[in-house]
């Protein structure tokens, strides 16, 4: 156990499971949900509270229960700056929630926003996409109309009717379109579909085939007019060398790689390998989305739209100016207890 120092209070942990009802049932190629389940991490120390969040992914055998079990067993000691010791050995979703809460606590301790502690320029944030889940054509078009003039959408595909869906969307939407198959195609299907999708001016396609086959991604990329980006194939920095030359970019999600520190490692590794970078999210509250947004001046693309998809969010953090991410200037994450966020 870490020895406590005289006169310094120990870090106290509280975990709060969070249910987030969604505006619409959210469907991707492998699953659907109408309520998202995350866990809020609260660290109390020296009169301060650090907020973190994890949105564990069942595909990686992590859950709200497994996050709670791992964090409750952790000896937190009395020094939130001891990041290596505190985070070592945790599973990614466990590490994510604790890492974010520690960064928030440190920022509050020194009274500086996280983006400033990282030396980043808040004016360099990208515009985020707005995700359209899989649905019938009429429902999909209604969702696109709700988006209004938002400049970028990401359309979930992978369960058929891909070309009909995109043709319908293009009939009413003139902004940038990205697509995400969530591992829903074979390599041959991907080549055929991407070739036919080119007429819809698609910016890139995310994870067309099941993860674990980088050479198949290379084969698709050599035949596709649309750039490829990985998600499930790029969990953390150790996955990236195998993707060099196989894809054009990667999707970094804090819950996959273990939080702020893991995301920074992925970003720097990707740059060294010549890969472009997107920051993504799960369906989650403003805590986790805002934590990722603090890193967004470092990346090429953002898909930080979690707050758009929930019906009620008990926290407020980042805002959006016609799709451009606006970082809060409060200490740490700059997240506070509050209500929903608007598209404008």
Describe this structure in words.
The structure is a single chain. The protein is an alpha/beta fold. The chain has 2 domains: about 10-110, Enolase-like, N-terminal domain (Enolase-like, domain 1); about 115-335, TIM Barrel. It is built from 12 helices and 15 strands. The chain has helices spanning about 65-70, 85, 90-110, 115, 135-145, 160-170, 185-195, 215-225, 255, 260-270, 285-295, 305-310; strands at about 10-30, 30-45, 50-55, 130, 150-155, 175-180, 200-205, 230, 250, 275-280, 300, 315, 320, 325, 335. Strand 4 (about 130), helix 5 and strand 5 (about 150-155) form a beta-alpha-beta unit. The longest helix is centred in the first third of the chain and has 19 residues, at about 90-110. The protein is globular and about 65 Å long.
Q: Secondary structure elements and their pairing?
A:
Elements: E1 12-28, E2 31-45, E3 48-54, H1 64-72, H2 83-87, H3 92-110, H4 114-117, E4 130-132, H5 137-147, E5 152-156, H6 162-170, E6 176-180, H7 187-197, E7 202-206, H8 214-223, E8 228-230, E9 249-252, H9 254-257, H10 260-272, E10 276-279, H11 286-293, E11 301-302, H12 306-309, E12 315-316, E13 319-321, E14 324-326, E15 336-337
Parallel strand pairs: 4-5, 5-6, 6-7, 7-8, 8-9, 9-10, 10-11
Antiparallel strand pairs: 1-2, 2-3, 12-15, 13-14
Helix pairs in contact: 1-3, 5-6, 7-8
List its salient traits:
344 residues, alpha/beta, Enolase-like, domain 1, TIM Barrel, 2 domains, 8-stranded parallel beta sheet, 3-stranded antiparallel beta sheet, 15 strands, globular, disordered C terminus
